[in-house]
Amino acid sequence: MEIQTLIVIGIILLAAVYLGNRIYRTARSARDGDGCAAGCGCDAPPARSRS
Amino acid sequence: MIEGTQERPSGEAVSPPVAPTDGAFRIALIGNPNTGKSTLFNALTGLRQKVGNYSGVTVERVEGRYRSDSGRTVSVLDLPGTYSLSATSPDEEIALSVLLGIAEKTEAPDVVVVVVDALHLERNLFLASQILELGLPVVIALNQVDAAGAAGIRVDPVELAMLLGTQVVETVATRAQGLEVLRRAVERAPDLPLPTRKFSLPDEIFSALQPVETSLVRGGFHPSTAGMEALRLLSVDPGGHLKGISGLDAEVERARSAVEAAGHYPRAVEAEVRYGWIAEVVDATVHRKGTTGSTLTDRIDAVVLHRVFGPLIFVALMALVFQSIFSWAEPLMTAVEGLVGAFGVQVQALLPPGDLRSLIVDGVIAGVGAVVVFLPQIVILFLFIGFLEATGYMARAAFIMDRFMRGVGLHGKSFIPMLSGYACAVPGIMAARTIESPKDRLATIMVVPLMSCSARLPVYTLLIGTFIPPVLIAGFLNLQGIMLLAMYLLGTVAALLIAGLFKKTLLRGPVQPMIMELPPYRLPDVRSLAMTVSQRAGLFLKRAGTIILALSIVLWALVSYPRSDVPAGVADDVAQEQQLANSYLGQAGQVVSPIFEPLGYDWKISVSIISSFAAREVFVSTMGTIYGVGSEADETSVALRDRLLQERRDDGTVAYTPLIAVGLMVFYVFAMMCMSTNAVVVRETGGGLKGLKWAAFQFAWMFVLAYGAAWIVYRAGLMMGFAG
């Protein structure tokens, strides 16, 4: 197998593992987390409230 | 001491007063948030503090002690900061039950110290006026007199004491000034006449409330407390400590009807009469140096919060924001497109032909690049939002929206989560935790995802920029900006209407009043504004560099394999189309496309919708990858807009039309295409099976709504003669 093909397979596997992990973390956050693992929960500060 | 003078409520739902068990003299500190109450508490008690929770609730209970000059042990309870005794939130309910002596495991206070901010006397006196009617000894701590003095405000403490009928002590808690005088006033308070209501009610309201007061006195309330409770009950429903009093609900309903028949709005009566009296007190006691009494903020608010002009200014400002997103961002967007395209060409020249080059150029650069080109729009959107927040306008927007929110039965506090939803539904849903009523909170969570989040912006701007012509309406309004505003308004109006529907059916409950503080207008701090915008831009780029990058790679693989055997001599574009159709993604597209066919979508849009469940902007990157693989890279490799315009069906007709684009945008306004939001909804609606049910219900109704609305738009457009 060519080296280029091996690199491509490696990149695809890495991306797939990352996505799988992301989905797992999201599902876990729904079960017992605080919502932070889910997407922009912790990164995105909510609009400041002055009420 | 007050024993023997204060009757406590008795009966089924209320327990008799609990005598102090350790002989300590008890005082309760109460005041609006940010009055320096806790600083005063710390100054009075030093380090002798105990922190816990009130029985059964998660409201913090802070208690401390000090020894008085007479050698007496004084126990100080720091009650939660509150604007009123409306008892609509757990904090207010706790404060009221402690003052009434009915809080579990908390003894009644001998004296109440009301901490009043001298800078904001008018607002602070609302709570004070309620407490003065509880039939308890009261001392007013007029705090922050130094800050008031610096602002040219002097409050006459002697005149104030005369008008309130109780002792007033000037304090500066931050410098421990006035503490000795305050301690002596507290010791003296039980020996002085109890304060009472200092204003009289209009005759018709007084008569209407008499039966309610009688019921309350029969239920064990002191006549003065009963008067305060009866007036309060015009705006809030009898609950909590009043539940055991028979016939009270009916009496309250009759009183409200009588008040309404006399031409008053029952829920506003208490605020009107109390603030009417407070205005007189403020006139007589507050002296301003070098000010006319009407500040610049007051003058601006007279227009911005006007019943008619206020909402018009709000819509005009929003229109300006969306106009700017198109007119300002276009040159920047074209520049970013050019940069990404040139980068793709450079990479293509560097790498040898093959799968690796295709993966990087057609997958990564086309997919991620298609999303990154929308960075200018994101920056402009958050620049405006940050500016409006920093100037103090957003608080006014919440105030203006409160009228509409109440119209549909939602609490005004729901506006803050909904406002956050414009950025991202996840923090918006988490912000709904501040809403006291579980039903209001659930109704808010159900509709927050309808607010158009920043992830929808790339979808809207791709479709509007491609299919809606940039023509001017009335000479100055860009049709593209109007279309974008329409999408945001559609989501917002739908959120309000659907929340109203929930509040009238599944989540029926009373409308709660809202008190909010409007900060003075000020010029925004450029550095903090820049920080807010850069945080948002960073977050957008981070998502592009992680989840969108990973998805672009996986989608490239799905669209590139298996390889099609194309006979020699077949034209390139036909060969590429054949490759797309036979790929794993193409095959999956053929399976799901019948679902979306009635909306006019082909398999490419269908799979892009499915993949955007990961995040809405993935729709754009998926289209970018599909068209990246389906063509040769050139200077405009990531100009997805051109590709969409050039796309043809088998019969040679245009594949994507403005009608399909509008239908697709409407679909995205309503559809819950975001796994992160789903996860947070599960968690915030109780977790486990219960949370799952709510999240599944939300996903289902939103999908049905999205599909139905897109179908109506498409079919109506066809009937009107638009090309489908």
Low-pLDDT segments of chain A: 33-51
Rg measurement of chain A, Å: 18 Å
The fraction of residues assigned to DSSP E strands of chain B is 5-15%
Mean pLDDT of chain B: 84
The helix content of chain A is 55-70%
The proportion of residues forming helix of chain B, as a percent range, comes to 55-70%
Task: Give the end-to-end Cα distance of chain B, rounded to a whole number of Å.
Answer: 82 Å
Number of strands of chain B: 11
Strand-and-helix sequence of chain A, N→C?
Answer: H
| Tally of helical runs of chain A | 1
Reported for the largest beta sheet of chain B, the result is: 7 strands, mixed
How large is the share of residues in beta strands of chain A? under 5%
Structural class of chain B: alpha/beta
Query: How are the strands of the largest sheet of chain B arranged?
Result: 2-3-4-1-5-6-8
Number of helices of chain B: 30
**Overall shape of chain B:** elongated
Looking at how many chains there are and whether they match, the oligomeric state comes to: heterodimer
**Largest interface: pair, residues per side:** A-B, 37 and 62 residues
Structure overview:
The complex is a heterodimer of chains A (51) and B (724). Chain A has one helix and no strands. Chain A is mostly helical. The longest helix of chain A has 29 residues. Chain A is rod-shaped and about 45 Å long. Chain B is α/β, with parallel strands linked by helices. In chain B, helix 16 runs antiparallel to helix 17, helix 19 packs across helix 20 and helix 19 runs antiparallel to helix 28.
Question: Topology of this structure?
Answer:
The complex is a heterodimer of chains A (51) and B (724).
Chain A: H1 3-31
Chain B: E1 25-31, H1 37-45, E2 49-53, E3 60-67, E4 73-78, H2 90-100, E5 111-117, H3 121-131, E6 138-143, H4 145-150, E7 153-155, H5 157-164, E8 167-170, H6 179-188, H7 203-218, H8 223-232, H9 248-261, H10 266-285, E9 286-288, H11 296-304, H12 309-350, H13 355-372, H14 375-391, H15 393-407, H16 415-421, H17 425-431, H18 438-447, H19 456-467, E10 472-473, E11 477-478, H20 479-504, H21 526-545, H22 547-560, H23 572-582, H24 584-596, H25 603-611, H26 618-629, H27 640-646, H28 658-670, H29 675-684, H30 688-719
Parallel strand pairs in B: 1-4, 1-5, 5-6, 6-8
Antiparallel strand pairs in B: 2-3, 3-4, 7-9, 10-11
